[in-house]
Design goal:
CATH architecture of chain A: Roll
Order of helices and strands of chain A: EHHEEEEH
Shape of chain A: elongated
Distance between the termini of chain A: 10 Å
Strand content of chain A: 35-45%
CATH topology of chain A: Thiol Ester Dehydrase, Chain A
Largest interface: A-C, 21 and 21 residues
Helix content of chain A: 10-25%
Oligomer: homotetramer
Radius of gyration of chain A: 15 Å
Chain lengths: ~130, ~130, ~130, ~130
């Protein structure tokens, strides 16, 4: 396993729904932020690669919802790499609240060109992801 | 005043927040949909003009929140034009629920080129908006 | 397999992101709407059961992203039941665009009480879901 | 003028739309966060007052959109109080990017009871807001 990245987020009203807890799709925004910060901490600027025609798109997600967070609480988005292949990366991401597990997820990124065809992950990114 | 366009929308969980009612920013999504449908009903394809380098951007909004909608309720987004100038359009949009007024808004669109500089609204669009 | 429910949705700017296509988490809003309409067509008012202390919460999702939708396009959310157990329901939901498959998903609902403990699905709902 | 509160936010994909910049309604989420942090820095826990039946609801907004932010950029949400009355508070909030002004807004909060009737702002909150 590679090193984990941790992002703290406070829950605001825009995260929640009328059930009183965070809306199930909004955790995916926190997970996006977690992956972006994982990359940023390793010097990977996904925006720069996008400008050059290399994109990472989410191809598959699997999310287990164990417990919920409420308005005003602080969650931690814990991001690590589960597996790197020629053209894909699987992230293992959890969301916790005071060490209670709320979410376990597996998110698969595929590296594609501007025609959305899978291509090899650039070596520079591969090496950085493995840090 | 020009003819009004009416769009019906049902409220889902993703519209609401932990206060039990629609989150204040989410009404702006309904208002966007109302303006798009107002244009579509008049044969204006804003996507096509965007591809040609003419965009409509929101420059100013004023919104009065009078009352709220809840999960499962149906709202009506009522859109009409308040004023058309050389390079801007002011929409008067209300949101109602069974004839109760929830929202009154004034939204100003400015017509810009790809460098975000104001330009004259194409005549074709001006004529269609006034229908 | 039980009868499918189909919901048509037009894509607006609020659905999309700077990648030019629908943001990956926003499809989950369309899937929520699909499940709600599946229930509504069978006379199930999930809001009423929530008031009585019986809730359906999403416990697990698995989503395959095959292709994307863009601003102005119309998608279809196709919802059917894959499996019903004592306290859970698995939905098989796809999103299509002119018969092209964009999304395949499996969404597990668990029936819980106000303390978020799993409880048996009320018979009235079970019978209606199987219609 | 009272003391300003400043909140830094990084822009992620979920903030943006297919126009390549932050979606106009999403800035209102940043403004919500700015007001919450303004209060939190002064020891006001709006969640606690909500539990006791005193709520602050947005009654009016006016927003000028001057310029936009893009994916990966960092914005500052600057929040201060413009005016406090018996039952309402007007916030003056700006959003800036490297000292460039993107957004100017005036947001009116009304203090209401659980029946959404305006009530006097509790003295404890009034004093804290004026810090």
């Amino acid at each position: 396993m590679f090193k984990e990245s941790v992002l703290e987020k406070k829950i605001y009203y825009h995260d929640t729904d009328a059930g009183g807890v965070v809306y199930y799709a909004n955790y995916l925004k926190h997970l996006e932020e977690g992956r972006t910060e994982y990359c940023a901490e390793r010097g990977i600027d996904t925006g720069k690669f996008a400008e050059e025609g290399t994109y990472f798109v989410v191809a598959h997600i699997e999310v287990d919802y164990k417990a919920s967070a409420r308005y005003g609480q602080t969650i931690k988005v814990n991001t690590q790499i589960e597996k790197i292949s020629r053209s894909s990366v699987v992230y293992l991401q959890t969301i916790t609240k005071e060490d209670k597990l709320l979410i376990i997820s597996h998110v698969t990124w595929v590296c594609v060109n501007s025609k959305f065809r899978p291509v090899s992950i650039p070596d520079e990114i591969k090496r950085a992801l493995e840090k």
